[in-house]
Amino acid sequence: MLKRPRGRPKKDNLIEGLDWDLLRYFYLIAVHGGYAEAGRKIDKAQAYLSQRIQSLERALGYEVFIRGAHGVDLTRKGVELFQFAEKLYFDLKGRVRPEVIIDGKRLIRVVATHAMMSYVLLAPLIEFQRKNPDIMLDLIGDDVDLNLTRHDADILIAPGAPSYEGGVTQILLFQMSKRLYASASYIKQFGEPKSVEDLKNHKIISPVYTKLNPFSDILWAFRLAQGDSPAYPDYTSNTFECVVRYAEAGLGIIGSYSTLDAIKNSQLVNILPEIESPPIEVHLIFADSIIDDSLTKSLIDHLIKSFQSY
Question: Which of residues 199 and 288 earns the better pLDDT score?
Fold first, then answer.
């Protein structure tokens, strides 16, 4: 997967007068990490895209990709071209992207992680949908690649601060931290831990992934309880719903964000309330040019207002 470069692009006179289609193909291949994925996205054969990139490289006088077994990487000059193309893409997005109308309703696409979409954003989005029946919200959950371009999204809501070179506005929407939760039945049977050290004597429910989650320390509660010991959680699941249900059934203690609807609507009790995880920042991201669209701007304003008290 392509890592977005930092820094400002250098000016290159060879870009002047360049065929926009060639630049667009280059940009999509870079964003999607290879010819095959980009080809599926825009319904073009790999051989065709390869020929177009060769034409681009001949026009520029330098190579833009290093081809490898698992996709492509940008050359140094390719990095500069990518920065230019990305800024141009976002500058033009709001001006050249046609409005999508489905059954007479204007479509607005919003992308976030699955958990963020399901347990944090859904309530304010439903509220906005009810107030604006002529709009159709297209809600996409993606835990792998949170990217405005990849999903052709109008709005991206992402943990951390994704790096874009220009033409994009990033607003800190809210911060959230994890806390410890258990059911009243668990506390009645096993008692309430009196300290972090006491957590070692309690049952911990935790997701267990083979690789680190890029957006959150999903093992926070387990690490808090066991430190560097080689112990294993008492109960595990790779789904948030199962983890919450385990806790509600009185099987153990979980760590979760208090802002999630599944926690707010549960009967779980916050234990050791003075203990919380380091906060993560959640940003609202959109192309600068899209702010000229009154419907999208109204949704952005609604989300900012909804999370003012977080």
Answer: 199
Q: 143 is written with which tokens?
A: 């835990």
Helix, strand, coil distribution of the chain in percent, nearest 5 = 40, 20, 40
Alpha helices in 117-256 (DSSP H): 122-131, 184-190, 220-226, 240-248
CATH fold for domain 101-173+280-306:
D-Maltodextrin-Binding Protein; domain 2 (3.40.190)
CATH superfamily, domain 178-271, is: Periplasmic binding protein-like II (3.40.190.10)
Q: Over the stretch 70-114, which tens digit does the pLDDT of each residue have?
A: 778 889 888 888 878 877 776 655 544 545 566 778 889 999 988
Scanning 102-196, the segments in alpha helix (DSSP H) are: 114-116, 122-131, 184-190
> What pTM did the predictor assign?
0.66
Burial of 76 (0-12, 13-18, 19+ CB in 10 A): exposed
